[in-house]
Design goal:
Blueprint (H helix, E strand, L loop, with lengths): L8 H19 L9 E5 L16 E3 L11 E5 L5 H6 L5 E6 L5 E6 L9 H13 L7 E5 L2 H6 L10 H7 L3 H6 L4 E4 L7 H11 L4 E4 L3 E6 L2 H23 L9 H10 L5
Parallel strand pairs: 7-8
Antiparallel strand pairs: 1-3, 1-6, 2-5, 3-4, 4-5, 6-9, 8-9
The protein binds 1,3-dihydroxyacetonephosphate (13P) and zinc ion.
The site of zinc ion (ZN) has 7 residues, from loops.
Length: 269
């Protein structure tokens, strides 16, 4: 079967990176059944002929996302398993094109696969990052890391900055690789605009957020780096839980030690 990737090496390379990360999500045990979803803005990689591609179906979006008008995204399919996205990304995901008004999309390639149920969330976040934050972040990656989700079951960790600071204090890398810390989004029904709007509030200050009792979501410029942020937070969560399982409270890096890293590595505020 012909694929949109056949004559577009740049797009094929991007989809290959997405497949690589989908494999990591599965290998890490963060992607039970269809758990998690990925969207990547591929507009800059599309060639002009993409505009002539026939659409399978046009679908209304739950709002108008002007900053994404005429943009193209690779998105994983709803109900699709990450382990299969890893093996066959174009059979378990699709390329969508947002229309000129920013209020609908059509699926243009390769197959008529319905995008993730979290698409309203993803699209709102891409739109927010561009229109309000003025950043050209291309990736939204959502997954279900067991250790991080476990920590959202403890009430005191849901207070602003508590969990983020705890995870920073486990290992220097977390302070460096996730310099904007961790936002907390209260529990909401998956796939709803309530969840999307609550997430956007947190993206004002953070690039990674926890969805209480559900999962983790990161925005970024590059799918591999987005995975790396979640992976580093997960490492910190494992160190914390490992110490607790061994029966002691971890000492944690001090605030002075963490501030010293911020100065040394010129980390953003
Ligand atoms: P989808 O299969 O629709 O992407 O849903 C998975 C998920 O993790 C919902 O939050
Ligand atoms: Zn989820």
């Amino acid at each position: 079967m012909n694929s949109i990737l056949d004559n577009n090496a740049a797009l094929a390379a991007q989809v290959s990176d997405i497949a690589e990360v989908a494999g990591y999500l599965w290998q890490r045990g963060w992607a039970e059944r269809n758990g998690g979803n990925i969207s990547v803005n591929v507009t800059e990689l599309m060639d002009k002929s993409a505009n002539n591609l026939l659409a399978f179906a046009q679908v209304q979006l739950p709002g108008t996302f002007k900053a994404l008008a005429n943009n193209f995204f690779y998105v994983t399919g709803t109900g699709k398993r990450m382990r299969y996205v890893a093996a066959k990304p174009m059979e378990n995901g699709c390329i969508i094109r947002i229309n000129a008004s920013g209020d609908a999309y059509d699926i243009i390639a390769d197959n008529n696969i319905a995008p993730t149920s979290e698409l309203p969330s993803h699209i709102s976040m891409h739109n927010y990052m561009r229109a309000v934050k003025g950043r050209n972040t291309k990736v939204v990656c959502h997954t279900h890391p067991t250790d991080l989700v476990a920590l959202t079951h403890k009430k005191e960790f849901l207070e602003p900055n508590v969990l983020g600071h705890l995870l920073w204090s486990m290992i220097p890398e977390t302070r460096i690789i996730v310099p904007l810390g961790l936002g907390i989004v209260p529990y909401n029904v998956p796939g709803t605009m309530n969840l999307a709007n609550a997430t956007i509030e947190q993206l004002d200050k953070h690039d990674v957020v926890m969805w209480e009792k559900h999962g983790c979501l990161a925005v970024g410029d590059d799918i591999i780096e987005t995975f790396d942020m979640i992976d580093t937070l997960s490492k910190s969560a494992q160190i914390y839980l490992c110490a607790k399982q061994a029966g002691f409270e971890p000492e944690c890096m001090s605030k002075t030690q963490m501030d010293e890293l911020a100065v040394y590595f010129k980390l953003p505020e």
